[in-house]
Amino acid sequence: MTAPLPAHSGILVREVRAETIIDAPPGVVWRVLTDFASYPDWNPFILSIEGKPWVGTRLSVEIRPPGRKSMRFSPRVLRVAKDHELRWIGRVLIAGLFDGEHRFTIAPEGDGSRFVQAEVFTGLLVPVVDLTGTFRATHLGFLLMNRALRERAESDGS
Fold first, then answer.
1. CA separation for the pair 109, 69 (Å, rounded)
2. Which of 18, 80, 116, 151 is the most exposed place for a label (fewest CB within 10 A)?
3. 6 pLDDT higher than 70
4. Per-residue pLDDT, 130
5. Digit-coded pLDDT (tens) for 116-139
6. Could you give the residue ranges of the DSSP H alpha helices within the chain?
7. Angle at the Cα of 147 (from 105 to 108), degrees rounded to 5?
8. Coil, strand, or helix at residue 152?
9. How confident is the model at residue 141 (pLDDT cuts 50, 70, 90)?
10. Angle between helical axes of 26-33 and 134-156 (0-180°, round to 10)
11. What is the average per-residue pLDDT within 18-28?
């Protein structure tokens, strides 16, 4: 087994990202994104979120990447900027083992919005997790959620 390379070499860092254009203003997209109680009605990737989107709080999040079993974790909210960004960090056991900083960003785009969902994974287990196809499944989950968010926000109107 080879020793892991330092994080700055790119081996222990991995970003998964997906974006979409939504024909609804940022306020509408934000309202749908932060209405956690309705996630079971429309979200094919994040099955549920319990808690409030307040900086410093812990959420209880259940996800199911396509083709995978669902999993629950308790990330800490890092940033909340109404109509613009929601960011959290989740960790496996201890910091530095397998951390994921997840962010949802919304930016004005013409008469609508650009929605970006991304997660930066860092830690010693990144190379191992990469071998399992987890990042590919996560990316597909992002794409599915982004499409469902777009459909929901556009049908909600402005």
1. 35
2. 151
3. no
4. 74
5. 999 999 998 888 877 778 899 999
6. 26-33, 39-42, 126-131, 134-156
7. 35
8. helix
9. very high
10. 120
11. 98
Query: Which alpha helices (H) appear in 65-133, and where do they start and end?
Result: 126-131
Supply the pLDDT for residue 4: 37
Q: What is the CATH number of domain 14-156?
A: 3.30.530.20
- Total residue count of the chain as it appears in this document: 158
pTM value surpassing 0.85: yes
What are the boundaries of each domain within the chain? 14-156
Backbone angles phi, psi at 122, to 5 degrees: -135, 160
- State pLDDT tens for residues 50-80: 999 999 999 999 999 999 999 999 999 999 9
Is residue 37 a contact partner of residue 60, using CB atoms and an 8 Å limit?
A: no
User: Are 30 and 45 in contact, with CB atoms under 8 Å apart?
Assistant: no
Distance between CA atoms of residues 59 and 47, nearest Å: 13
Using CA atoms, how far apart are residues 154 and 46, in angstroms rounded to an integer?
Answer: 19
Burial 23-60 (b: 16+ CB within 10 A, else e): ebbbebbbbbbeebeebeeebebbebbeeebeeeeebe
